[in-house]
Design goal:
The complex is a heterodimer of chains A (338) and B (328). Chain A is α/β, with parallel strands linked by helices. Chain A has 12 helices and 14 strands. In chain A, helix 6 runs parallel beside helix 7. Chain A is globular. The two termini of chain A are 30 Å apart. Chain B has 328 residues and is α/β, with parallel strands linked by helices. In chain B, the strands form 2 sheets. Chain B has an 8-stranded mixed β-sheet with strand order 6-7-8-3-9-10-12-11, with helices on both faces. Chain B has a 4-stranded antiparallel β-sheet with strand order 2-1-4-5, covered by helices on one side. In chain B, strand 7, helix 8 and strand 8 form a beta-alpha-beta unit. The model of chain B has no long low-confidence stretch (mean pLDDT 90). Classes of the chains: A alpha/beta (338), B alpha/beta (328). At the A-B interface, helix 7, helix 8 and helix 10 of A face helix 7, helix 8, helix 9, helix 10 and helix 11 of B.
């Protein structure tokens, strides 16, 4: 077992959306009460990310995957639970104590049109993290470092004084990656880094991310909704549904033998090019709102295998068998019904 | 005769420094019950093709050459008045984002009745009846109640179903769907894809599916045309195209798909170098030549024509050195 670089333990993140005092007033059987409304985005997620691996978190919109990523990197404080980085708790640190960790963790966002400041040249964008984190760095060193990193991501270093609007979407994403790489992080959270890009560009960026991983020994937490991308880049996959983990397994195992009914439905829905037409597994109903979570297994309302136990009792993430490392949160699988 | 026939269509936009040709010599046909895919990356001209069919190119753009024949009539010469009897009536369109296409302050019922009454001389009651029937057709449960609800009360997938129901109201002969599943989650996308296939068959419609996703095209369509920089570069039966692409760009697109594509030894995807050229700076000769691994001198100077592939009547490719067979 490799050493975990990031450990997430029972992470919970709720967002309070109850608004002002008057909006919180509720009449309930003749009494006036103050009631809080919360979006339960992440509910008790535990994960380990090992050195050098790519852990992909997949799920549909609203399942909490981006919230999980942002909480891990410290952009949101968790409601409860812990995030440990190389054995040190980082979720309770204040901004100043967090600084040394910020150098080691970086983030890449989905939309390179929104994540780059349009009024900053490439040089200014890339310089900022360097100058901020390495106060003593000389101008010559900055220049050298910039050239190096731009070269690596495949943007001509001679273009460092250009502005984002002069670049295409793919090149902007390269610059966003360069910004993350410039201070030599060891852990990168990539939130849908290729979703906004065309297929041919998507392949270029995925290759670039994988090259960077090989050269620098990076660890990725890769957030995406695209299961084909996951299959290509990830070493391990965590499937999320409504703020909880359904299944965690190595990529090969997950695509080979998916256990959880939701994972199966998700995999059957991927459109295929090879002409082998799949029967899409139809899920009944719709994703419930994360404000009022269903009792028991969060998936029970849409699952064809659901029984009374599923409606009452929350399933735990259990190892399926000794042979495989796959962990599944499903009563049906645990009982051998599915 | 085909239901829809587009011949040598050229769309250009008049800019200050001359004309920008967004579509160049695009020809295709669409029959009843046929499902045609239009694939390409952003800027390839797929949406413009869709808009050109229903004569909806806005200024400074115009159809500068070619013909659009629908049921034997030249749509490109129709007046705006005449087009209104076609658009949303005989030919309907579905767009990507269902929240942008529905009016958030009107109930779904109001919007459906309005659409119907714009084209048919019927009472509100009758229109509602038809609306309910169409909502049933797209598998929306309890349509009578749903008719009184507002768009925000529906989920994304349900909204897209409503859009499809609205498109079906007037029993169109053709539906043009521009990226209908792109904004949706995979499981919902799968449902909408199944629904579109089902409706084409049950309602006798032709479908023109515009998308960037080869997977969606492979699952939904029977025939496909691949576009690049405003031109059709390859057209074939969908099964043939994905199994044995002939144009280097098509091959590149398929090989670049993660999870399906060909990987080299380090598990890297095969990538097409560079990006699609801006329409103002298209290279002479074959527009794909700067990115092509089979490029020869002739490609740099001579524009390849879309030619019929020997031995296959339904297959055309525009390349000086088309590939053959699976591995090349």
């Amino acid at each position: 077992m490799k050493t975990p670089i990031v450990q997430i333990d029972n992470l919970v993140k709720y967002f309070d959306i109850s608004g002002g005092f008057l909006e919180q007033l509720q009449f309930n059987s003749g009494k006036v009460k103050l009631q809080k409304t919360e979006v339960k985005a992440v509910n008790g997620v535990s994960l380990e990310i090992s050195q050098g691996e790519t852990l992909a978190v997949v799920g549909e919109s609203g399942c909490g995957k981006s919230t999980l990523a942002r909480t891990v990197i410290g952009l949101y404080p968790p409601t409860s639970g812990t995030v440990t980085y190389r054995g040190e708790r980082i979720d309770t640190l204040n901004a100043k104590q967090m600084l040394p960790y910020r150098q080691r963790m970086q983030m890449i966002f989905q939309d390179p049109y929104a994540s780059l400041n349009p009024r900053k040249s490439v040089r200014q964008t890339l310089e900022e993290p360097l100058r901020f984190h390495r106060k003593k760095i000389t101008a010559a060193e900055v220049d050298e470092r910039l050239g190096e990193v731009m070269e690596q991501v495949g943007v001509n270093p001679a273009w460092r004084d250009r502005f984002p609007h002069e670049f295409s979407g793919g090149q902007r994403q390269r610059i966003a990656i360069a910004r993350a790489l410039v201070i030599d992080p060891e852990f990168i959270v990539a939130d849908e880094p290729v979703s906004a890009l065309d297929v041919s560009i998507q392949a270029q960026i995925l290759n670039l991310l994988m090259d960077a991983q090989d050269q620098r020994g990076l660890t990725y937490l890769f957030i995406t909704h695209d299961l084909s991308v996951v299959r290509h880049v990830a070493t391990r996959v965590a499937v999320m549904y409504l703020g909880t983990l359904c299944e965690v397994a190595t990529t090969a195992e997950l695509y080979d033998t998916p256990y959880h009914p939701y994972t199966r439905a998700l995999l059957s829905a991927i459109p295929r090019v090879d002409g082998t037409k799949q029967n899409h597994i139809k899920l009944k109903g719709e994703i419930p709102t994360p404000i009022n979570l269903p009792s028991g297994c969060v998936f029970h309302g849409r699952c064809i295998h659901a029984d009374d136990r599923c409606r009452m009792e929350v399933p735990e993430l259990l190892q399926v068998s000794d042979a495989s490392g796959a962990r599944v949160a499903c009563h049906g699988v645990a009982e051998g019904r599915i | 005769m085909s239901l829809l026939e587009v011949k040598n269509l050229e769309v250009s936009f008049a800019l200050r420094h001359g004309d920008l040709v967004a579509l160049n010599d695009v020809s295709f046909t669409l029959n009843k019950r046929e499902r045609l895919g239009v694939v390409g990356e952003s800027g390839a001209g797929k949406s413009v093709t869709g808009f050109a069919v229903i004569n909806l190119i806005s200024k400074p753009g115009r159809i500068s050459k070619g013909e659009v024949l629908f049921d034997g009539e030249r749509l490109d010469q129709f007046s705006e008045q005449e087009m209104r009897t076609i658009r949303g009536n005989r030919i309907s369109m579905i767009f990507q984002d269902p929240m942008m296409t529905l009016n958030p302050v009107l109930t779904v019922g109001t919007q459906m009745v309005e659409t119907l009454r714009a084209h048919r001389n019927i009472s509100v009651k009758e229109a509602q009846k038809i609306a309910i029937r169409k909502l049933g057709l797209v598998h929306i449960p309890s349509p009578e109640r749903r008719l009184r609800q507002y768009p925000h009360e529906f989920s994304g997938g349900m909204r897209q179903r409503i859009i499809i129901a609205i498109a079906l109201l007037t029993e169109p002969a053709i539906i043009i769907a521009d990226e209908p599943t792109t904004a949706l989650d995979v499981t919902i996308q799968a449902e909408i894809m199944d629904l579109l296939i089902e409706l084409c068959n049950s309602q006798d419609m032709g479908l023109m599916l515009i998308t960037h996703d080869l997977g969606v095209v492979a699952e939904v369509t029977e025939r496909v045309m691949v576009m690049y920089a405003g031109k059709v570069i390859e057209t074939a039966k969908t099964a043939d195209l994905v199994a044995t692409p002939m144009h280097p760009y098509t091959r590149g697109l398929i090989n670049a798909l993660p999870g399906h594509g060909v990987c080299d030894t380090d598990n890297r995807l095969q990538q097409i170098p560079g990006t699609m050229p801006n329409l103002t700076e298209i290279a002479p000769g074959c527009s794909f030549h700067p990115r092509c691994d089979r490029c020869q001198d002739i490609c740099k100077y001579t524009v390849p024509e879309l030619q019929k592939v020997v031995g296959n009547t339904d297959r055309f490719v525009s390349c000086h050195f088309p590939g053959e067979g699976q591995e090349w």
